[in-house]
Amino acid sequence: MLSLSACSSKIYFTQAIRDQYKLTPEELKGIQFYLSDEIILRRGETNENQKSTEDGKLIVQSGKNIEQLVFKPNTEGGVEQVVDSKGMTVAFEEGAGNYLVFSSARNRNGLYTLQAMTWENGRGKVSYGDDVWYSAPGSEGAALMFKMKSIRKLRVNEKVAKGRKVR
Question: Does the residue 53 lie in any domain?
Answer without folding.
Answer: no
